[in-house]
Amino acid sequence: MRVKDRYLGMLRLLLILGIGIYIIINVLIVNKGYNATEIPVGTVRSSLKMPASAINRAELGYCQGKDWDFPKENFKCAIWDEHYVRYPTEEINGLFITSRIQETSQTYQCGITDTDEACQAPFVDEDEPETKFIAGIEFYTVGLQHSFRSPTFSQESNSKVYQGSSNAYAGRIVDKDGTVIGTFPADTTSDKPDVLTLATLLQAAGADLSNPSNDPNNSQRYSGIVLVVSIDYTNADTSSTTHYTYRVTAIPNADYKIFEVATGISGDAASRTATRRLTKRAGPKVIFVVSGEMVKFDFQVLLVQLVSAMGLLSVATIIVEMLMLYVMPLRKRYSEAKFEETIDFSTLRDTEEAALNNRANCDSDPVNYTSM
Predict the structure, then answer these.
(1) CA–CA gap between residue 144 and residue 271 (Å, rounded)
(2) Strand 284-297 to strand 76-78: parallel, antiparallel, or no bridges (unpaired)?
(3) Is-above-0.85 flag for pTM?
(4) What tens-digit pLDDT sequence spans the chain (372 residues)?
(5) How far apart are the first and last CA of the chain?
(6) Which residues share a beta bridge with 249?
């Protein structure tokens, strides 16, 4: 049935036009619904370097006990190189940077003949533990080299679009608001890493080591902080060229501490004593994750989007029909034109069933049936 009504016709055309624009602009152009997507995987190698210029402890407020008035103790600052600051010295997809240390020298006092009760504390401190901050830790530089691979797409194509190392691609680092705060051009002629200061990573995460930690009496410089650096590879934007983006997130209320034990023997051959140096470390723990979104044209995906679009277009007809039959002033006239009312088949069915029953009675008792 075709309903001739200019208002309903215009409404249906407007709905179809709106749905069509949504499909073309949002589904196909903006979201590129004709592409298959895949999350890449990869690995990261990191390095740490001490600042090239001299560190002036007198210019650092936290070296004078002025770190937001906490911690309450007036800690001194030590100057360590990158080999002391990083612990452990090698870590896959991770990096720990020491910002605060507490060192204690201990001696083993539990002899062979001592009782178990006497050995409840086998090591005793030789002196009071000493706590220090690492001076200028924000100015230490982090070197990053990484690679990625799109598991399925790279098997279908050997193109470097879907796999490769960071030197072959341009990169950038953005802050919490998406503002670019640093760029890294592609350089296939060298094997140099991307170099960022710890201060840049903290800025990208919107964090500061002088901010209060999970313990309100201490700063994040004292208690540590956990940063997750997501390295997002993609070829999904208008450039259609693979590139990567560093996005840094600080995990809320997450401190990070680690313990280091260095054992040794002191004294001469006649009186050797077991000793150890216990170092409690705290600072930024940086975790690297390779992620992102790789895209590739896929006809099956496009076909699914088109079929879904055809189903969505039928929604316009359904909406107009509901308005026509239940909302519009002439809904009764529309209903009469749309639907043809039949006889009541329930009554017809009852009549036919009664006739069949009478015929059955006639066959079983023809005499009584005739007398009736």
Answers:
(1) 49
(2) unpaired
(3) no
(4) 677 778 888 888 888 888 888 888 888 877 777 888 899 999 999 999 999 898 988 888 888 766 556 666 678 899 999 999 999 988 889 999 999 999 988 888 776 656 667 677 788 888 888 899 999 999 999 999 999 999 888 887 777 889 999 999 999 999 999 999 999 999 988 889 999 999 999 999 999 998 888 888 888 999 999 999 999 999 887 556 899 999 999 999 899 999 988 887 665 544 456 888 899 999 999 999 999 999 888 888 888 888 888 888 888 888 888 888 888 888 788 787 777 777 888 888 888 888 888 877 776 665 555 544
(5) 52
(6) 228
